[in-house]
Structure formats: structure tokens, C-alpha cells
Amino acid sequence: VANGSEGIISSLPIPSDNSHELRDAVETAIPETKLTSAPRGQLRSSLIIEKKFLFLALALLILAAIALVTRRELTRTPGFQLQNMQISPVTDNGKVRYMAISPDAQNVAYALREGLDQSLWLRNLQSGREMQLLAPDIVNFSGMEFSPDGSFLYFVRSEKENPVFSYLCRMPSGGGTVEQLIRDADSPVSFSPDGQQFVYTRGYPPRVITEVRIANADGTSDHLLAVMPGHQVYEAGPTWSPDNHAIAVPLHLIGNHSRFVLYAISLSDSRPVEIYSSVGAIGRPLWVRNGKEFL
User: Fold this and answer.
1) Beta strands 197-204; 209-216: pairing state
2) d(CA 100, CA 17)
3) Residues 209-264 pLDDT 10s
4) What's the sign of the alpha-carbon dihedral 167, 173, 174, 179?
5) At 246, which helix (H) or strand (E)?
6) Sign of torsion, CA 34 40 45 49?
7) How far apart, in whole angstroms, are the C-alpha atoms of residue 252 and residue 228?
């Protein structure tokens, strides 16, 4: 017999066959414990009540789960669907080189090419009003992207004095001073879900490799994520997954069997996984359905 309150195990003398002697012996060893026996009918009723309660609780849990899923489906914002897509022209001059749409879908920034000159423009999609952000110059734009809050426009551009390298720059989306963030960037940036970092690529022609790099939103803490084989001329640009697990990047592999490959690079261990390949060029991937699919 164990005395639970004191953690003591005691030995009791084994009485005769009379049950009342056993009962008396136990009550003598543990006076505060009273051994009682409930009627069989009462025990059965208690079990039935407990089972009914468990079934009721389970049914309520199932109903709550169904209601939660139904509400989520009814309130979920519809995803991108090709059958509902409408196409309308934004410009009709045939001279647009690169473009980016603002997070609120109100403005479009684009590079306009006229001969050797390129300029940077902002167009409001509702009013059609256009504003020149940067005057024409002998430069080359190779990608642009709005910051997640829409306050800055990031763009990659060469300089007239040094056409070999491109620079990652940013400026207020409504116009203002251009700030040079990173030297030698070859693709548009893509931001992390919290908007604090961005990813970009840098090609090295002699080594036929492409670096996938990450930096803070202001260009600081620039560091290497992964080194990938790939032709440096093809720089469609990487994109950051909305679940913050991977970076998608398309690359051009050259050799005996030239092909374009879409990789997903893990942010936890920098390990690349081949997602898709094609003999035709693969454009910049877009994560849809909260990172479950690519467009």
C-alpha cells in the first residue's frame, strides 16, 4: 500500500479470507482513506454521461473546424486566374525597355529608349499622367523594382563614364536625388517579405558563374548567398519567396547542351534545387498562391 501524501510504501499483514478483515486492515494503515463501492448502475450511468460528453465535444470541435475553413475560403482574396485576365495597353510608343509596377498598382515606372539614350519615367495608370524622373543619357537600364512600401524606386543602370559595370541605385518614387547603393549589380532586386532585405545577381564573365547575393534595403551588409553556373549576359533576376524559405532564380547554362534552368535556392542552407528547365529562355519568376506556384 502506498501512502501518496508521504511517498511511503507500507507492508500489511494478510488477514484471513474474511473480506471485512481486509477492509479493516487497510483502513487501519491509511485512516484517511475510505473504501467505498458505488452501485453498478451508478457507474454505468457515469460512463454513459462521460461518453456523451466526449462525443458532444468532438462534434463541436469538428463543426468549429468546418466553420473556420469555410470562413477562410469565403474571405480569401482570389488569386491570379488566367481566365479572368484582361490586357490593356499602357504605352504605345514601342520604346519601353524595362518596367515595374508599384505595390498599390497605381503607377508604372519604365525606361524609355531613344537611339543611344535612355530615360526614366513614371506613369499614373488611372490618370495617364506621365512624369520624367531622369533625363535621357547614354546609359543602359537593366531592371527596376519598387520598394514594398512604394516610397523608393530601385533600378540597375550603367554609367556613361564606365559602361562596363552597372550600379544598383534608388531614388524616391516621386522623383529626387539618385543614391548609388551597390557597384556591379546585374539584375533587378526582389525584396524579402518584411522589406528589410533584397536579393540580386552578379555575373562574372571570365568564370561563367553568377553570384546570388543579399543586402539590406539601404545596400549595407551585402553578402553572398550562392554561386551558380550560368552565362553572365542572361540576368532575368531572382525573386524572394513570400514564405521566406527560398530564392527563385533563372539561369542560362551553356555547354554541349545549352538550356535555361529555374532554381529554388534554400535560404537556410543555400542549397539549390532545379525546378524547371527549357531550351527557350525563362523569364523572371513570379511567386503565386503564397509561394506554392510559379508564374
Assistant:
1) antiparallel
2) 94
3) 899 999 999 999 999 999 998 765 667 899 999 999 999 999 988 877 888 999 99
4) negative
5) strand 246-253
6) positive
7) 10
